[in-house]
């Protein structure tokens, strides 16, 4: 049994595309005013997908912000961006999807296309090939002689004055190297082995994360998944969060790959979780489908107060006093399909010192003229 203690918790946050405006403000505060936040936590990644992504899964993506702006913000702070492509029902024909391929190429290369708009609804290009796609991307991303011109138009002017002050001050202090943000690896959260093999062949620089949509409730199955070299991280089903006897027996290498879903609100006895995820996959494929959850209290929807009562819930005290000492350091916060106000509450609870939570609310949205009713 390995007892290597971890000192830092890495949070993997929801809403890469869905909550761009929230993160544009929050990240500025997080890095400019580090004293507001717990010193034992960092941001490991931000995950999500734009609207109408064929490969999307888990939750139906509704992000409308331009992929270039999203990538710019992540590069600004050297944060890993993850595409949530966890559709479990993909077939060979779906692999040619133009929009999803362009997103993968964009996030793998770390360069911004000045022409392609990911907001537009794209029909699958049946004549698309990866060679043609890369040739097109070489033109669009201005690789080679045009790279310098592209670098000059990365879109930093869209960032707030606070963001610029942070970057400048860190560079002056030698704490943020310009090259660092370009080296940050991005990844893909994946369910389908068909898509996994496709990504490995065509976008080898993107690391892969095994999706919680696989609903790994059997611990032996979790170990098998963790041992796969394909994945850098594996997100088990939330019902394994408290299997401490088995978790303690994992090796340090295995523990480093486990990413716990900390704030799940679903009924712990749910037997339809796979069907729920499959319904989302079908919806992203354009099929008319609806899954009705019959779990107790399902009609109330997501409530953070209810999630906190879930036996699988992992709070900050458990992270600090149980999981980190055991050698686990990666924690996923769900919330892509929720509202930004609730996601902010997650960020306040998990990352912000209580005495500064009001200050963060004021900086992000709360002013003296805001009316709720």
Question: What would you note in describing this structure?
Answer:
The protein is an alpha/beta fold and 373 residues long. 40% of the residues lie in helices and 10% in strands. It is built from 16 helices and eight strands. The protein has helices at residues 20-32, 67-77, 98-109, 130-140, 147-151, 161-172, 178-183, 193-202, 219-226, 244-248, 252-257, 273-284, 304-309, 316-326, 340-351, 357-364; strands spanning 9-14, 41-48, 80-85, 187-190, 207-210, 233-234, 259-261, 330-332. The protein has an eight-stranded parallel sheet with strand order 6-5-4-3-2-1-8-7. Helix 1 runs parallel beside helix 6 (161-172) and helix 3 (98-109) packs across helix 4 (130-140). The longest helix has 13 residues, at 20-32.
Topology of this structure?
Layout (H helix, E strand, L loop, with lengths): L8 E6 L5 H13 L8 E8 L18 H11 L2 E6 L12 H12 L20 H11 L6 H5 L9 H12 L5 H6 L3 E4 L2 H10 L4 E4 L8 H8 L6 E2 L9 H5 L3 H6 L1 E3 L11 H12 L19 H6 L6 H11 L3 E3 L7 H12 L5 H8 L9
Parallel strand pairs: 1-2, 1-8, 2-3, 3-4, 4-5, 5-6, 7-8
């Amino acid at each position: 049994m390995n007892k290597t203690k971890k000192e830092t918790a890495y949070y993997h946050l929801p809403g890469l595309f869905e909550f761009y405006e929230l993160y544009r403000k929050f990240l500025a505060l997080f890095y400019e005013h580090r004293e507001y936040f717990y010193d034992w936590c960092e941001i490991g990644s931000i995950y999500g997908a734009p609207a109408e992504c064929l490969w999307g899964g888990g939750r139906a993506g509704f992000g409308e912000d331009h992929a270039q702006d999203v990538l710019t913000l992540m590069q600004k702070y050297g944060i890993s961006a993850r595409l949530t492509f966890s559709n479990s029902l993909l077939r060979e024909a779906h692999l040619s999807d133009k929009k999803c391929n362009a997103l993968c190429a964009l996030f793998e290369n770390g360069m911004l296309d000045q022409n392609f708009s990911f907001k537009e609804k794209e029909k699958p290009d049946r004549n698309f090939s990866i060679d043609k796609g890369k040739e097109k991307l070489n033109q669009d991303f201005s690789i080679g002689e045009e790279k310098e011109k592209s670098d000059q138009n990365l879109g930093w002017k869209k960032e707030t004055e606070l963001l610029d002050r942070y970057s400048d001050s860190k560079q002056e202090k030698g704490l943020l190297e310009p090259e660092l943000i370009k080296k940050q690896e991005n990844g893909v959260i994946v369910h389908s082995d068909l898509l996994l093999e496709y990504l490995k062949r065509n976008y080898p620089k993107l690391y892969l994360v095994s999706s919680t949509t696989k609903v790994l409730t059997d611990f032996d199955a979790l170990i098998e998944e963790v041992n796969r070299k394909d994945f850098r991280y594996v997100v088990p089903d939330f019902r394994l969060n408290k299997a401490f006897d088995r978790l303690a027996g994992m090796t340090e290498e295995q523990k480093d790959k486990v990413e716990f879903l900390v704030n799940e609100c679903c009924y712990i006895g749910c037997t339809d979780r796979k069907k729920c995820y499959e319904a989302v996959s079908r919806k992203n494929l354009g099929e008319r489908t609806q899954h009705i959850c019959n779990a107790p209290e399902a009609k109330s929807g997501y409530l953070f107060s209810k999630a906190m009562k879930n036996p699988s819930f992992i709070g900050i005290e458990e992270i600090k006093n149980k999981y980190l000492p055991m050698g686990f350091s990666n924690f996923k916060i769900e919330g892509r399909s929720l509202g930004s106000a609730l996601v902010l509450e997650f960020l306040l609870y998990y990352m912000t010192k209580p005495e500064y939570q009001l200050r963060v609310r004021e900086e992000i949205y709360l002013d003296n003229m805001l009316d709720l009713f």
